[in-house]
Records
---
Amino acid sequence: MEEKKVLEELRRYRERDLKYEEGRILGSMCTKPHPISRKVLEMFLETNLGDPGLFPGTKGLEEEVIKMIGEMLHNRNPFGYIISGGTEANITALRVVKKMARERGKREVNILIPESAHFSFEKAREMMDLKYEKIPLDKRYTMDVKYLRDYIEDKGKDVDGIVAIAGSTELGTVDNIPEISKVAREYNIYIHVDGAFGGFVIPFLEERYRLEGYNYNFDFSLDNVFSITVDPHKMGLAPIPAGGILFRDISFKRYLEVEAPYLTETSQATLVGTRPGFGVAATWAIMKLLGPEGYREIVSQCMENTYYLVRRMKEYSFESVIDPVLNIVAIRDENPLDTSLKLRKMGWYLSTCRCVEALRVVMMPHITREHIDKFIEALARCKKR
Amino acid sequence: MEEKKVLEELRRYRERDLKYEEGRILGSMCTKPHPISRKVLEMFLETNLGDPGLFPGTKGLEEEVIKMIGEMLHNRNPFGYIISGGTEANITALRVVKKMARERGKREVNILIPESAHFSFEKAREMMDLKYEKIPLDKRYTMDVKYLRDYIEDKGKDVDGIVAIAGSTELGTVDNIPEISKVAREYNIYIHVDGAFGGFVIPFLEERYRLEGYNYNFDFSLDNVFSITVDPHKMGLAPIPAGGILFRDISFKRYLEVEAPYLTETSQATLVGTRPGFGVAATWAIMKLLGPEGYREIVSQCMENTYYLVRRMKEYSFESVIDPVLNIVAIRDENPLDTSLKLRKMGWYLSTCRCVEALRVVMMPHITREHIDKFIEALARCKKR
């Protein structure tokens, strides 16, 4: 087939996709990447961080990105990688937890994980035969720390790791990680924080958007937080694939290393081998370009739109399940699956919660007030209010 | 930082990387992506196949790509995905083998795997607690089928899977998969073929490049070959990330599915969640543009260059470990690590074998005869011949 025809046909396929700027993607944690991404891609398309000796420049950028994200998370000496996404990041952290448990002579690896955890943890559990104890949620839909403490006091020595969430997929809640950290320190338990979504939100969340009585701290400043998932390709505005896994320091590397005889380096610690460098370079570019101030503006805009949606919902007597903690709104609905399918037929794509009967809207930067107005009218029509 | 400055700095980093067109990358299985990739990227940068309901056009392309690759591998009804690369693909296949074994009530999952297997299988083993029996190599450096058969005759019921290689990382050898298939059928054992490299070479390898007495067949035409790893981002000329995993049919999907409550679909079978669509679209474009004839030309050119290198080696009394099976040359060397480091100082990047004392050159499409001439002179200087 000729190039011209190939590109024409591709365009036809592409036209069938939704576009972020149309504002109809309301349930995704991804968004339109920052415009500089295209220029960066042009430069870095060929790079392969699976063999970093061939691409020392790009590898240097990855080290700087990890350092920058580390600083954002109060860690000046992090170790980590920019990888395919949150799933690989969470699996990577649990690979470490498993290996550490094995070195302590344990066969069974016991992990405490909140009911609100993302389904990537289910993939990890199944592959690695981890044993999960699901910790119920309290009335704020965050991990019940009292339950957690009681459980650990009961079986302290048997617990190898705790997963805590900073920005849950369903409701955007942040577990009380400062309190979890206290228990973990007392019993010497590893904490992995899944901040895939919240990692690029919470550090830039101004005081006026923080709920009273809510402790948003989730990062390496807390004892026993040894790894954090934080995805540039979610609220960091980077193109896919740019997920992030950070460990407290380089000492965790050895649990991940596998001998890599054919490369310019002798071992490989990432799960995926060959991996593109452009997500790394784009993340570097976007972080340098925006700076903390730029991210603060984006997060503030998303929070304002979040509140705007909640206000508009009230006009139509729709109820938000919780006061939004981050830029996610859960709309109470007696039959969310049915409603979401009806909305989809009307051209609005959002998804549903599991932990509560609700629709969810992730207020990503591509969603404007005009989109919100149109959506709320569609929802009202759909529910005949 | 200003955009102009950001791009300038990025350019400085990028200059430190090696470039494929300089011909000094001799040990990588990746290459300069086909030029159409940039135009495709421009169009598909924003797509996310982790949530295919939002991107039905791009998802349609993935289905077509899997069908096209399936046809190339003699399978008109394949099931599969374009994913991050060979590591994810191999892990995905072994997830299925493990799940099937568990459903048969087995706790321990026993897999026969040749000594020549890529280190991604080591990651899979460690994560999934698989039990490997390493099958030694015969004098052709392929899996010793007699050993394999004897082993299975001994412990038939205990073997849950066989991994076979079509294009080994070190020497480019192809296991005798037709013979392995016979044993596997007899004992009803799952075969996974790692054709990450060979998958886009063997189907386009003209008769005149095929070694006598060597059976190159490796695909779904053979009984019990239930999955194949085949990477467009290696000899398929696609940009990273574009790895491929194909299963014989859709019936294997259920072993991989995990409930995915927040997406437009209700389950997810890939290991990685969020994943870019542009590797898929680029693979589609390149396959349509080149067609089998285009790939045949590329493979032929790589084979001619492979033979050319072997001829030039002989002039300097360097010995090839085997007659090249595919476009990989192993150069016998009494101290390959030392030689490779010396060569690296001279600006030539190649790697070493484990199974034999040798340097290895992967004759990718970016390597020209001029590069080969310069390299062989450098090698001669390095070894003072």
---
Amino acid sequence: MTVLALHAVRRVAIIGCGLIGGSFALAIRKARPEITVTAYGRSQTTLQEALRMGAITDVSSSLPDAVRDADVVLISVPVGATHETLSSMRAHLKPTALVMDAGSTKADMVATAQTVLGENMASGASPEATSHFPLSHFVPAHPIAGKEKAGIAHAEGDLYANRLVILTPSSATAAPAISLATALWEAVGARVIQMDADTHDHVFGAVSHLPHLLAFAYMNGVDPSTIAMGGTGFQDFTRIAGSDPVVWRDILSTNRTEILAQVQGFEQALAQLKSALTEGDTVQLQTLITQASAQRKAWRVPAPLSDSNAIDD
Amino acid sequence: MTVLALHAVRRVAIIGCGLIGGSFALAIRKARPEITVTAYGRSQTTLQEALRMGAITDVSSSLPDAVRDADVVLISVPVGATHETLSSMRAHLKPTALVMDAGSTKADMVATAQTVLGENMASGASPEATSHFPLSHFVPAHPIAGKEKAGIAHAEGDLYANRLVILTPSSATAAPAISLATALWEAVGARVIQMDADTHDHVFGAVSHLPHLLAFAYMNGVDPSTIAMGGTGFQDFTRIAGSDPVVWRDILSTNRTEILAQVQGFEQALAQLKSALTEGDTVQLQTLITQASAQRKAWRVPAPLSDSNAIDD
């Protein structure tokens, strides 16, 4: 038994219908109107809003109901809630379903999937006690699209247009599952690439998680009486500090080993700058700033990311 | 002898015709076409470009030539070159001239003006040895407008439209000089406010200089192999790291006491976040992120700064 091809998909379930899940729902409804989209989440207000917006075609009153007939399930809850969500749904999934998450950290997700679904692969597992949903049908995904504003109210059908989606399949992942995941994200306009989960967490620890940590620290440390005078330098530097606390609590916690290692590189670079300042060594100070400025100027907005939509993490 | 009123100003000299000086020249030429604008700077290419753009009406071949007949002199060189520039021009200034700088740090500028011009006030000064240009005609100014791109090529006639300009007069500054400085910046579209130089340096140390220092440190510390995957979170957080090295060497050096004190507040806030991460204290982590996020969300773009032009420092 394998997953369906995209053209055969009839029903998608969105678990957690916020910015990420709601935008996926809006986009897949637009691209494939023949697909019904249901959603389940803790907030009835959110689900009703998603229905009103036309993002979903019906609301499920329980997690089992949501996934039971779904050909595709997208888990778009805060990273810290993924384990419990996956555990709760596994016995109710169709064996042919594709399940994806949309979290910003991936090594933990590979491990979670192994823990929750892997036992189905063990020869000793009792068929009665476990679902037949196979680990090979789980594809970890990370859409590099978002905003600092969370929630269904900010969902947009073109959130993923020209955005990057990273898939981090493991050796256990089946090729048809990767193909369907790729086709789905491409159907909503994204460009899909694959990398292993550890590489993903190193890269996004560096370009996303660490900047968030530093922006949070800056906002907490700055004299509040001064910020009314902030210009666009301040505005841009601190924009990501306004991100959702629960989402970022989970991302930073989940990728903490990587982040704590990388913050040391930052601290060493800061120490060099402070030392040059303290010693009045303007030659060294200029050298360090020139290095930073050249590195930044050499950076180019990735082509599919260069339009006006905001992209975070 | 006092400075002129704006309607009587016939000649303005721009010393250092980059983004800041060139934009002022373009704007004043547009607002007051009867005023001739000359410029002096180290780069003939820059001066010829300013002439070609219509920012200035003529090029001066020396600093004395530039300031000799000027009713208003704007010094727009990197902060570290201001002392020498002011020293070199003082003997050649008209006693009725207004002189302004446009630097991003101000306590040092008040001290520099006192050092270079203050001796004219001392009873023992020899009239032959010194110019008669009085300290009271020097007005330190900081236009809160700029971009991360420096140079005359990026100058715009509306760079100061609806921007804030901070004047930091000292007790030695004459009221008519403050009035003319205010009228000039208002003529190019800016909104002018006054604060004392130490307050200025504290405020802009917090909302501008410290973010630049942190962005430089981040760019120097980050694994270069990862940044190709940066999205708009990365893009916005690091934009100011691309700023001009000489300009920022001087700003950070000049305001280093304030900046080194403020970086401690950042480091304490970062240590709290790291501690919560290390200990796996997700409650404390969420509390700290919530505090940062709330502080950022409560911030509002200052009304005159809310249009689309980029504003730095």
